[in-house]
């Protein structure tokens, strides 16, 4: 047996080993990478067989051309690398492209002389190739493929971690050896040193190393459990050999010994397989654990990364918020400053206010007491601030103030309050802020001086009225006595003159009465005694008074009263009568002879209305808005009656106002006027 | 028997006019020009009615009214206030003190006053 025999025997053995490995992988393996590893192994088997054939079978040229099946091995290697490193985008396209290129190269090699032109046996086991024109290109393509798959592996290794990294490490080392060997012995060396054609089959041997490492990582990757299979195979093979040996034993003793050995071996074999199983199981567990840890680790890393990102985002947002907040704070500070200024202004006003100001909160606690209030009450703020009503009642004049304010929180308007030497007008108003009540403001206005003047005025008016009325009364009584014949008979002419004097005196009395009324209205002392009344009676009384006057003026009076009794209304009989009489008197006075005056009383559920319509001179529209003002008399009225006071309608308006009623009129010059008032009917 | 009326009035002209009217209407009259005299006359004469003015030189009409109403001997005598003060508070005060009526001089003729008196002491 010479060297060439040993060589092709090894090559065939490697071919067989690869073929078996391919079958194992296909049948036992799972997933994409196992499938393509199977193909790789299968093509390596063919490659090995081809090289074996080169050295042992006839038609050497064909087998040498066939060695370009190495291109298919490179393609299969590319595809496996893709599958293993999970570069599976356009995977089918990649398969077609790579296998396509390899198939073309192989086909070109087999059918044309462009890659290998011819061969010559330089030596029985050295085959020299005469290369064809495409040889270099095919070689470059093949080397490119190898280097590319190498690059992918290294790249995948660099970006991997954990178990995968370990696996890729072995795969990459295997590649490195396989590729370097192949490139060296099949690529470069033969180009420069023809004697290296002797080692063109070198890739086959390197493939064994690569295959071994691949197998190792496949075991690690659990594609299938080759350890057990190998153990089982080995045990079965040895067992079978030992068993066969029993039958070829020289003697019985040897046969017994060999049987014992066989049985022992079976036992040991069984234990070995079991131990291997357990070992594998433990490895599985450990690997699973490692994978779990790795997974957890990765998950944790992911989570940490996510959280970090989130945190960074939050920090960024916080920074943004901080900026906004700072800006807001600056604004708030500015606003605070402005508010402070405003507050100081307000406080200055409050402090220097000539009215006494008190503020109570919703719990009736005194929260503000200004200097003027201190003067009124004769107590210092410090002694009473923060106290509630119950505590304050014991202090100086607070009790009388609270009597006026009452316990309910209603608005109080200008109620008189006597505190030591002061006469004050106390008003209280609710303090509101943002729609809610925050307390009560009490304002004490000093009216001591006004009060004094008012008292003097009242006194004056009373005395003046008395002093004026006394002589007027004397004249009235005396004339009345004479006219009644109480002092003897008088002539008609005397009577006429005396009557005129009497009337003039009456007008004076009315004027004084009106002035007195006006004074009292303005003082707010025109008091009302409200009693429930049917207005018809008052209308009749009022009309009766003026019947005589109407006859004198040649004016007809018509009364329109409700057919059913009108509802009672609360009125001051005397004052409402005055109001009615003022209307009627005006109507008669300012209507020309032959005119009509219509007095009517109507009502609905809410109010009762009294109207006096005349066919008189009317009121100039320009003067209408001044009609209810004091001492006002319309131009056409003055022409007709010189002795009016201009106070009647002013008084009437005030009377109606005091009854919460309405007063109005309609008028057309030379057509007539209608004066009306209505009073509310309170249920 | 004629009814006796006491007039307490400081203004002599008014006093004369009303006195004349009362006499012609069939009353006996007696008079006083101030408060003190008025009270004294009331006690002495025990009139059937007092016509009382309010503004008087010494004690005013209200003072006279109170004294009359405090004195058990004369408090039964009806008092009509006849004044030129027409403010409600005075009217109220007079009623409170026991006056039977309150007449305003300027708004009534002597005849009307007699009517009121008749109604009171008929």
Topology:
The complex is a heterodimer of chains A (683) and B (122).
Chain A: H1 3-28, H2 31-56, H3 60-66, H4 70-84, H5 91-111, E1 116-123, E2 126-131, H6 135-158, H7 162-192, H8 202-220, H9 226-247, H10 252-352, E3 356-361, E4 366-369, H11 371-377, H12 381-384, H13 389-392, H14 398-405, E5 412-419, E6 422-433, E7 436-446, H15 448-483, H16 492-523, E8 531-533, H17 535-552, E9 556-560, E10 569-571, H18 573-589, E11 596-603, E12 607-614, H19 635-640, H20 648-658, E13 662-668, E14 672-680
Parallel strand pairs in A: 9-11
Antiparallel strand pairs in A: 1-2, 3-4, 3-7, 5-6, 6-7, 8-10, 11-12, 12-14, 13-14
Helix pairs in contact in A: 1-2, 2-3, 2-4, 2-8, 4-5, 4-6, 6-7, 7-8, 9-10, 15-16, 16-20, 17-18, 18-20
Chain B: E1 4-8, H1 12-24, E2 28-32, H2 35-45, E3 49-52, H3 61-70, E4 79-83, H4 88-97, E5 101-104, H5 110-121
Parallel strand pairs in B: 1-2, 1-3, 3-4, 4-5
Helix pairs in contact in B: 2-3
Distance between the terminal alpha carbons of chain B, to the nearest Å? 12 Å
Strand % of chain B is: 15-25%
Structural class of chain B: alpha/beta
Q: How is the main sheet of chain B built?
A: 5 strands, parallel
- The multimeric state of the shown protein is heterodimer
Side by side, the strands of the main sheet of chain A go 4-3-7-6-5
Greatest interface (CB-CB under 8 A), with counts per chain: A-B, 24 and 22 residues
Q: Rough shape of chain A?
A: rod-shaped
Largest sheet features of chain A? 5 strands, antiparallel
Share of residues in helices of chain A: 55-70%
Strands in their spatial order, largest beta sheet of chain B: 2-1-3-4-5
Instruction: Report the total helices of chain B.
Output: 5
Order of helices and strands of chain B: EHEHEHEHEH
Uncertain stretches of 5 or more adjacent residues of chain B: none
Distance between the termini of chain A: 143 Å
Number of helices of chain A: 20
- Overall mean pLDDT of chain B: 92
């Amino acid at each position: 047996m010479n060297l060439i025999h040993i060589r092709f025997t090894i090559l065939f053995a490697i071919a067989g080993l690869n073929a078996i490995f391919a079958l194992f992988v296909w049948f036992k393996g799972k997933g994409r990478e196992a499938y393509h590893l199977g193909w790789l192994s299968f093509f390596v088997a063919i490659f090995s067989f081809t090289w074996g054939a080169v050295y042992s079978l006839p038609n050497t040229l064909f087998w040498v051309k066939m060695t370009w099946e190495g291109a298919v091995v490179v393609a299969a290697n590319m595809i496996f690398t893709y599958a293993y490193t999970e570069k599976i985008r356009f995977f089918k396209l990649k398969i077609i492209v790579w296998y396509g290129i390899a198939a073309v190269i192989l086909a070109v090699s087999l059918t044309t002389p462009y890659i290998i032109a011819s061969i010559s046996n330089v030596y029985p086991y050295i085959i020299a190739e005469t290369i064809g024109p495409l040889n270099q290109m095919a070689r470059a393509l093949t080397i490119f493929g190898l280097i590319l798959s190498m690059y992918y592996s290294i790249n995948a290794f660099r970006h991997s971690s954990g178990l995968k990294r370990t696996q890729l490490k072995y795969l990459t080392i295997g590649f490195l050896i396989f590729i370097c060997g192949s490139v060296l012995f099949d690529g470069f060396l033969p180009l420069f040193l023809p004697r290296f054609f002797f080692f063109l089959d070198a890739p086959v041997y390197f493939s064994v190393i690569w295959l071994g490492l691949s197998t190792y990582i496949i075991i690690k990757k659990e594609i299938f459990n080759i350890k057990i299979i190998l153990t089982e195979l080995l045990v079965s093979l040895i067992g079978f050999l030992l068993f066969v040996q029993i039958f070829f034993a020289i003697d019985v003793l040897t046969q017994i010994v060999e049987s014992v050995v066989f049985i022992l071996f079976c036992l040991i074999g069984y234990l070995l397989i079991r131990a291997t199983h357990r070992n594998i199981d433990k490895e599985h567990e450990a690997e699973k654990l490692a994978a779990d840890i790795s997974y957890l680790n990765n998950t944790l890393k992911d989570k940490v990364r996510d959280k970090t990102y989130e945190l960074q985002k939050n920090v960024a947002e916080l920074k943004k918020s901080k900026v906004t907040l700072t800006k807001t704070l600056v604004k708030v500070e500015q606003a605070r400053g402005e508010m402070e200024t405003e507050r100081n202004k307000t406080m200055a006003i409050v402090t220097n206010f000539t009215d006494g100001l008190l503020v109570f909160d919703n719990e009736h606690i005194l929260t503000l007491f200004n200097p003027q209030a201190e003067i009124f009450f004769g107590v210092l703020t410090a002694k009473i601030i923060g106290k509630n009503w119950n505590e304050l009642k014991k202090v100086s004049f607070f009790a009388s103030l609270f009597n006026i304010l009452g316990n309910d929180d209603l608005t109080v308007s200008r109620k008189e309050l006597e505190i030591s030497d002061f006469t004050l007008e106390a008003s209280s108003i609710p303090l509101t802020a943002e729609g809610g009540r925050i307390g009560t403001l009490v304002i004490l206005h000093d009216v001591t001086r006004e009060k004094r003047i008012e008292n003097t005025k009242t006194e004056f008016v009373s005395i003046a009225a008395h002093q004026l009325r006394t002589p007027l009364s004397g004249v009235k009584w005396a004339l009345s006595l004479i006219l009644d014949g109480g002092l003897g008979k008088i002539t008609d002419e005397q009577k006429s003159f005396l009557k005129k004097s009497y009337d003039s005196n009456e007008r004076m009395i009315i004027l004084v009465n009106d002035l007195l009324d006006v004074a009292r209205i303005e003082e707010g002392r025109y008091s009302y005694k409200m009693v429930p009344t049917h207005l018809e009676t008052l209308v009749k009384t009022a009309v009766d008074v003026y019947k005589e006057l109407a006859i004198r003026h040649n004016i007809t009076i018509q009364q329109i009263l409700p057919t059913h009794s009108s509802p009672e209304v609360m009125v001051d009989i005397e004052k409402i009568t005055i109001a009615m009489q003022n209307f009627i008197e005006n109507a008669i006075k300012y209507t020309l002879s032959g005119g009509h005056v219509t007095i009517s009383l109507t009502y609905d559920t809410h109010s009762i209305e009294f109207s006096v319509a005349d066919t008189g001179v009317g009121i100039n529209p320009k003067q209408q808005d001044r009609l209810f003002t004091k001492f006002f008399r319309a131009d056409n009225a003055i022409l007709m009656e010189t002795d009016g006071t201009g106070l009647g309608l002013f008084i009437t308006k005030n009377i109606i106002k005091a009854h919460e009623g309405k007063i109005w009129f309609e008028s057309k010059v030379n057509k007539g006027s209608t004066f009306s008032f209505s009073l509310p009917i309170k249920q | 028997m004629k009814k006796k009326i006491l007039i307490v009035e400081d203004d002599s002209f008014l006093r004369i006019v009303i006195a004349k009217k009362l006499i012609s209407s069939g009353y006996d009259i007696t008079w006083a020009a101030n408060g003190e005299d008025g009270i004294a006359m009331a006690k002495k004469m025990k009139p059937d009615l007092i016509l009382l003015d309010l503004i008087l030189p010494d004690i005013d009409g209200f003072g006279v009214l109170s004294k009359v109403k405090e004195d058990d001997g004369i408090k039964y005598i009806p008092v009509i206030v006849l004044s030129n003060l027409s403010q409600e508070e005075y009217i109220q005060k007079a009623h409170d003190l026991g006056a039977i009526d309150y007449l305003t001089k300027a708004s009534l003729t002597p005849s009307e006053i007699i009517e009121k008196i008749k109604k009171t002491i008929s």
